[in-house]
């Protein structure tokens, strides 16, 4: 009996340290089937800004108490912000033919535009929907410094698998705690939809367009050089008596 407890402890520790029990999930949106016009040309995609819970290495989801939770056994296979940025740039390029590259820009010729994405929510919600919302910005230094800002709010139904927990709330709404593979699949589908919206400079959200003010022509026209000054008359000083 004295040996039984240490053996059980060792078995439990061995199970916890088993690397095969840790799942790593790819951020890898599907290859786009549709093609759209090239509206961006060459563009640098800044590092995508994610909420803290989405930027951590663990796959997060919303639980029945409304909290956002995660498990160290369910991890993203790469740094989420890096993977999100790289795959979003690739998806935009693949569907539009534009040259969209994640920063830093590696080519000698600078990009014509810069794209910035700020994600406000990237979460598998309790209602069985994966939400990806925020804003994206496209700026162009030339052509008067045109800027394009648009909000996005993408909803992807979470596929319910055998490992998903589903129940009814008091109000009768369905509550789903999706499995990590389902969350990864829904996020990848949401990234593909976001890529399509950025590629077309569209989406269901509102658009804000601004243009940098042009410099007044009076300040941009070079001034004529001033005429040379006439030499001063010579002054002679006589010594005192």
UniProtKB/TrEMBL annotation:
InterPro entries, alphabetized: ABC_trans_aux
Residue span(s) of domain ABC-type transport auxiliary lipoprotein component: 25-199
One Pfam family it belongs to: ABC_trans_aux
Protein name (record): Membrane integrity-associated transporter subunit PqiC
Organism: Paracoccus niistensis
